[in-house]
């Protein structure tokens, strides 16, 4: 589709609009690599300068993403995650009408380091379950999760998690324990090589790091988690209200 060179609208704006329409129509699908610059020039009848300007603008708008040495890709739609939500990933995906998908990286018993023991209100060196998983959204890695569970509260939990999709459902079923409250700390970090590999992103790419502690109705800490999200794949929302006195 050639652009209108006689229009008063600048060509890079026309190209932005056309590429956006093509993405919305499915000409270019989420995760798909765009044609190289020279091919885009031929397809739309514009110069490389015009193509570069339009692409840069669409990257800034969040519709495209550039990967060093790989090319330009159509961005996956961002997941919207309520920051104050207590539910787990499986429950969140079910609410979205999607089938939850996880990949277990590792799990096993470890001696609790002092900081984790303090969070979980247990003695240092006590046995805890460490669980590392990748959580997916539309087959795209959304979260790298590193969690620690108190075996004083949840003895032999390691026997139930191998094929578990929902840790909260597992805990409720076997221990009658339900998370009702959590505390979260949100920071921005940059992906190291291991995080980039698991999240299919570039080293140095911005990540949201959420430090989370979940509690039951008796205010007992159930688990602590470190959750890493590529910043270009998730939007955190906050739903709050002012109480009337």
From TrEMBL:
Keywords carried by this UniProt record: DNA-binding, Transcription, Transcription regulation
GO MF terms held by the record: DNA binding; DNA-binding transcription factor activity
Protein's GO biological process: negative regulation of DNA-templated transcription
Lineage: superkingdom: Bacteria
PROSITE patterns registered for this protein in UniProt: HTH_GNTR
Keyword DNA-binding carried by entry: yes
SUPFAM superfamilies (UniProt xref): Chorismate lyase-like (SSF64288), Winged helix' DNA-binding domain (SSF46785)
Descriptive protein name: GntR family transcriptional regulator
Origin species: Priestia filamentosa
Lineage, highest ranks first: Bacteria, Bacillati, Bacillota, Bacilli, Bacillales
């Amino acid at each position: 589709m050639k652009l209108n060179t006689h229009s008063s609208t600048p060509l890079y704006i026309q190209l932005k609009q056309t590429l956006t329409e093509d993405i919305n129509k499915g000409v270019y699908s989420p995760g798909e690599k765009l044609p190289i610059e020279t091919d885009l020039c031929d397809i739309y009848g514009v110069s490389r300068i015009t193509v570069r300007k339009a692409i840069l603008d669409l990257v800034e708008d969040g519709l495209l993403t550039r990967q060093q040495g790989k090319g330009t890709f159509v961005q996956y739609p961002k997941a919207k995650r309520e920051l104050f939500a207590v539910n787990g990933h499986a429950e969140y995906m079910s609410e979205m009408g999607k089938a939850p998908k996880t990949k277990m990286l590792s799990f096993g018993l470890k001696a609790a380091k002092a900081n984790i023991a303090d969070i979980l209100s247990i003695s240092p060196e006590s046995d805890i379950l460490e669980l590392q998983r990748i959580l997916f959204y539309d087959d795209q890695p959304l979260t790298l999760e590193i969690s620690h569970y108190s075996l004083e509260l949840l003895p032999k939990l390691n026997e139930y998690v191998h094929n578990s999709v929902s840790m909260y459902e597992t805990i409720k079923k076997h221990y009658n324990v339900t998370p009702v409250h959590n505390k979260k700390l949100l920071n921005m970090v940059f992906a190291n090589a291991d995080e980039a590999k698991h999240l299919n992103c570039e080293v140095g790419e911005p990540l949201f790091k959420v430090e989370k502690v979940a509690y039951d109705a008796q205010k007992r800490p159930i688990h602590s988690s470190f959750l890493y999200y590529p910043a270009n794949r998730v939007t955190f929302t906050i739903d709050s209200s002012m109480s009337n006195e």
